[in-house]
DNA sequence: CTCATGTGAGACGTTCATGTCTCATTGGCT
DNA sequence: AGCCAATGAGACATGAACGTCTCACATGAG
């Protein structure tokens, strides 16, 4: 009966990922609480979305830590990264589209930190000679976001299996569509 | 002074891509007409979005035709495809996120046709031995959408140059991040 | 010139999401 | 048992977006 903030945030993320325009009443119902209680703990819809953003950033940074991006080859690091990011994909997909939904308004500083760490990973791969240099590290970061969101939605809508998620994204991002003749 | 339907649709697409929640008044102002006139020609916001969807589908199918997906190698076809799709990327990005915004509601039959043609292209590449078969053709289609949207937004927000668009997307989709040792 | 069509500006009513408030009830703690 | 804090249900007011309508004006055709 006691208010479970984390549970509410996860339920909200699940619903809003499927339907970004859901009303606060729908969010409350999905979380199993009343609209009044939702407003008691999050002063307004904006505050809820911001809390979701904070949660997403925290999970994302935790995933980056767990993936140990600086260790081993960049290729291995990217694989670990995608695997670590998989659990928070739906939240990421929601926040990704939410960011496109509105104009500038200055984005959360956390995203800049995450962007920087991802870009650094791709840059490391380029400097070590593993990754090609004709695709900028910034673009590779953007592409990773896009593929994560696309994969997340494909899974949600049943066009892809959740088990394939990590493989699909990591393989496409690293190896591309073309068949490799020789290793 | 005479009403230019096509011009209005393009202005609406440009604005809505940047700000999907724009008001009908903002859309009208962006198109240089009054809100009343906008409502005279499109009975409601839904009708406008549907018209945008029809336009996007038509342009997309025209691009598929122009790319001659059945000719040459699948790789060449994909490159022609990305190049042909580039002009309507912003419209595609808007419709892509718009589709995720709402639940099912049955999607336009045009998208199914386009999906089928794209999937067929990737399947052809797999059967000819050009493309790897551990990534399903359906997923490659989804990934293409995701990369197009990511690229479109990156260009809009100035994180990537429009000139690089075709190269960025086609190269990443086909070749991936990893450097090729031998051709 | 005259008239008709189409447009812009603005007012108006409606709908809907939202935030706040009240009040009865519940569940836990002493 | 008795008390306190938190919750759920519902009413209420507010504001925004929308669709419709009216009226004045302009442009083009006859």
TrEMBL record, chains A, B:
Matching PROSITE patterns: HTH_TETR_2
Residue ranges the UniProt entry marks as DNA-binding: 23-42
Coiled-coil segments: none
One GO MF term: DNA-binding transcription factor activity
Superkingdom field: Bacteria
Keywords linked to the UniProt accession: DNA-binding, Transcription, Transcription regulation
Pfam family membership, one: TetR_N
Record keyword DNA-binding present: yes
DNA-binding is among the record's keywords: yes
Gene3D superfamilies the record matches: Tetracycline Repressor, domain 2
Entries under InterPro entries matching the protein: Homeodomain-like_sf, HTH-type_TetR-like_transc_reg, HTH_TetR, Tet_transcr_reg_TetR-rel_C_sf
Domain HTH tetR-type: 2-60
PANTHER family, per the entry: HTH-TYPE TRANSCRIPTIONAL REGULATOR BETI, HTH-TYPE TRANSCRIPTIONAL REGULATOR RUTR
Name of the protein in question: TetR/AcrR family transcriptional regulator
């Amino acid at each position: 009966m006691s208010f479970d903030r984390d549970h509410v945030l996860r339920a909200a993320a699940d619903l809003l990922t499927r339907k970004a325009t859901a009303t606060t009443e729908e969010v409350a119902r999905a979380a199993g609480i009343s609209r009044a209680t939702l407003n008691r703990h999050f002063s307004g819809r904006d505050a809820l979305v911001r809390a979701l953003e904070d949660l997403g950033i925290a999970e994302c940074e935790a995933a980056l830590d767990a993936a140990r991006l600086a260790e081993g080859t960049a290729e291995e690091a990217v694989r670990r990264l995608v695997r670590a990011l998989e659990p928070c994909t739906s939240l990421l997909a929601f926040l990704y589209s939410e960011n496109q939904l509105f104009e500038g308004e200055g984005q959360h500083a956390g995203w800049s930190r995450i962007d920087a760490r991802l870009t650094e990973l791709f840059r490391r791969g380029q400097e070590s000679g593993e990754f090609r240099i004709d695709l900028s590290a910034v673009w590779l970061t953007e592409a990773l976001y896009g593929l994560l969101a696309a994969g997340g939605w494909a899974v949600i809508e049943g066009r892809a299996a959740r088990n394939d998620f990590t493989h699909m994204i990591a393989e496409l991002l690293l190896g591309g569509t073309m068949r490799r003749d020789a290793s």
